[in-house]
Amino acid sequence: MRITYTGRQVELAPAQLRKIEKQFAKLGKLLDGKDQREAHVILSVERRLHCAEINVNYHNHSLVGLGENADLFTAIHAAILKMEKQAIKVRAVGRRRFAERTETVDVLRRYSADHRLVFVGDATMASYEVLQPGGSLEHHNVEPGAAWLARLTSQFPRFAWINPEPEGLWPYRQSVAIIQQLMGGRMVPLTLDGLKRATALLSR
Question: Domain total for the chain?
Answer without folding.
Answer: 2
